[in-house]
Amino acid sequence: MHNLALIVTDPFSLGKRIREKPFWILPALLILALTLALTLPYSPKAFHETMEKLRIEKPEVVQKLKEAGRWERMVNAPKKVIFLRTTIGLVFAYGISLVITSLLLLLGLRFFTAEGNFVHLLSIYTHSTLINYPLASLVKDIIIYLKGTTLGVSTSLLLFFPLSPFSKAGRFLQAFDIMDIWAAAACGLAVAGAFSLEKKRGLTVSLGVWLLKALITGGLSLLF
């Protein structure tokens, strides 16, 4: 827990620790468990409110689902099914994120040093996800509790614009998350600490990877 806390309080020192002894499995499991504990309680409410908003804003999509006989099954899905879908989706997305982002960080690091390997970057990035997974979920839970609804609750740039999350602009803005930026900055400082880089270079690597991912994710959201 102390090492996880360092990603928030002193990521540069955490990087030095990881350089000596990379570790990621236990932190990853703990982060995933915390995220699920904070996400699952509101997942049925979020699902049903999203379905209702979809019914109002995208009637043509709803009509297609009704014609295919899927709409009633979707809106009447029991809680255990929603919990299962949420858990599987989160576990899958988290695992893919760990692998792909760590690879991109390794590629970015090679512009500045030949030191470090995939496990080092995987360990650093895993710790940084404490910020944009459980901490981000906690922030969202607080907002949901205060607002009484899951609609419009976000830590992305969408928070500052009165746009529907189903609109193209809304989907694009959701790719630019404030908690992701914080996590990327902490990750960059940890990278600098691990490989004796200038902090500016560590931040360049990590924030560059974040921006690339956000642009790709936001761009793909416009296609669907």
Structure commentary:
With 224 residues, the protein is mostly helical. The protein contains 11 helices and no strands. Helix 2 (11-20) packs across helix 10 (178-194) and helix 3 packs parallel to helix 8 (118-147). The longest helix has 31 residues, at 79-109. It starts with a helix and ends with a helix.
In short:
This protein is mostly helical.
Distance between the termini: 40 Å
Say how many strands there are: 0
- Secondary-structure element sequence? HHHHHHHHHHH
Rounded Rg = 19 Å
Task: Identify the overall geometry.
Answer: elongated
Note the main attributes of this structure.
224 residues, mainly alpha, 0% strand, elongated
Topology (elements, then pairings):
Blueprint: H1 2-9, H2 11-20, H3 25-39, H4 43-57, H5 59-67, H6 71-75, H7 79-109, H8 118-147, H9 168-173, H10 178-194, H11 199-221
